[in-house]
Amino acid sequence: MNIKKSILLRVRIAFLFVVLFAIAVVVKTGHIQFVEGEKWAAMGERISFDYKRVKATRGNIYSDNGSLLATSLPFYKIAFDATLPKDEVFNSGLDSLAGHLSRFFGDKSKTDYKRMLKDARATGKQYVILSRKHIDYQDKKVMMRWPIFREGRLRGGAIFEKIDVRYRPFSGLSGRTIGYINENDKGVGLEFSFNKQLGGQDGYAYYQKIAGGIWKPVFDANNVKAVEGLDLQTTLDVNLQDVAETALHKAMLQHNADDGMVCVMEVATGNIKAISNLSSDGHGNFVERFNFVTGQLFEPGSTFKLVTMIALLEDSPVELNDSIDTGNGEYTFYNKTVRDHEEGGLGRVSVQDAFEHSSNVAMAKLVDKHFGLRPQKFVDYVDQLKLSQPLGVQIAGEPTPKIKRPGQKGWSGISLPWMAYGYGFEITPLHTLALYNAVANNGKMIKPIFVKSVRRADEEEEEFESEVLNNKICSSETLDKMKLLLEGVVERGTAKNIKGTHYRIAGKTGTAQILENGRYTKKYITSFVGYFPAHAPKYSAIVLIKNPRGWYQYGSSVAAPVFKEIADNIYARDINLHQPMDVRKFKLQDVLPVIRAGNQQELTMLCNSLGISSHSQTEEEWVRSSREGNGVNWKKSIAGKNLVPDVMGMTFRDAVYLLENSGLKVFYEGKGRVKQQSLLPGGRVARGNRIFIKLG
């Protein structure tokens, strides 16, 4: 009995605890519902509803002629409010709509889509995502004609949520300069540097969180509409950009190089017309990973000798015709040896020859002699030429040049001689280009420009003009000498392999050893920087190619040909760069142009344009010519329906037109005018006849 009583007691105690727990649950529920109801309702509202940021549509980025470089294309996420369509609309269009969705997206069967739509209708779902795939605007237009959807947003239930996707029509062209921006507003290039202008003003919209963690937009009077971003008008020329990038890519492939960069600038304005930065991906391809031109520091090598010569000509008695002994191409400063690239050295040469043939020994000896006791004076010229501070360009991320100074840690007796030919300090390629551009621009140094204006549609909000960094980098006398030296490099010196035939190039080659882990390696950075045409400079450009492999590892053989290819293409396309021909030199007396046969009206117009007297003996459309003194007579030519025309001497275009109009099938070879025809003129044309003409 004691055991039975013990068990009953335990059961009663357990039952009592259950009853008490149930009472506590009921009390707590009542307290939450009636006492704290408003508090928890407000919290539920905050969790289920929220104002979310609506990204504004980013502005466009344009080239100098208005070509799109970057734009935002509208894509859409498609959802469905199953409560809106009327029963007759839903039931009659369900089967067809399910079929359209299945065929378009291809991710579910028609039966699956039909079941999804019916379930959503039965449970009163107001927001069902139909597919995770995004559609473009043209797809949206097609879908809006489908059953049910064609009734519109409020009666058909189709919900199209716009999502902007950044698109570049020219793909990777100048990719790092145009740049990108990510979800956290971090990025590179113009997209990042002008994010405030491009990004516009974000809006806010009311969203409801529904099953599956999906946020559904809800109309609310307090929604704030987003304001679209502004557009950028850049200085880039897409045609020139394509030429520059193609030339660089070809050279990188040829020399199996690690990195390469090219930048083309308009001399008078500082406008950057083309910029490309390529890096090897290790699999034989080249991609843009980093903007070396604006964001990477390099030892400039021999291209810095321009600064050395400016300092010498401005602040020492050195003249171009002075002689300097370079010996066998080696000279020792303290415990370090300076070497020339030419085996055996140049011997005793003029200062001009030493520069044109890029003698390191000559530059080091001259600087040590005239600035050895006053090294700060030489560094002052580096400062005056704006090479020791960032240029302040429009692309974020420009580094500060690393320039050693007398008295600072790391400065020694060899620092100045090494600096004379471009070692021991680092600047960006854009610094070097800006300096050479200043020589071409009669001494005026201007800041490179990437963006000309910020616009809203056709209205200009902000304009950027050329900013002068230095009104005159040196005296006019020194400037004239520097132009002579830079032309001499191409005419007689290290870059004579790119000497032009129709125009002159001025510039300087550079070859610098790459410093790795504190030691100079047998890897090189090859470069060429200059301007053209030398007599009236319009463009300047710099080319750097890092670590070319193979026999050719100098600026003259690796970088300079890229410069020449770009310059040739620009010269061929820009008629304003061509000097007018001397008419007296090419004009021959009493010589008429080749006019043999053709359309009388066109030939008469041609003669009138050339100032040649012409007379006609016929009203026929097609004529032949005969010379009469200093004039031309037009005579009737054999031509007519079903007759073999006389096309001897005609241009290919006219000949084919006449022959095919006569019912003949034409075969030809050669180029130029017709000099032979296989069928005699005047003969009858039978159906399917063929004629062979030879051009020459």
From TrEMBL:
UniProt keyword terms in alphabetical order: Carboxypeptidase, Hydrolase, Membrane, Protease, Transmembrane, Transmembrane helix
Statement: the UniProt record of this protein carries the keyword Nucleotide-binding: no
Superkingdom assignment: Bacteria
Keyword Hydrolase: yes
Record localization: Membrane
InterPro entries (UniProt xref): Beta-lactam/transpept, Beta-lactam/transpept-like, PASTA_dom, PBP_dimer, PBP_dimer_sf, PCN-bd_Tpept
Domain PASTA: 640-696
Transmembrane stretches, start-end: 7-27
Gene3D superfamilies: 3.30.450.330, DD-peptidase/beta-lactamase superfamily, Penicillin-binding protein 2a (Domain 2)
Predominant localisation class: membrane
Protein name per UniProt: Transpeptidase family protein
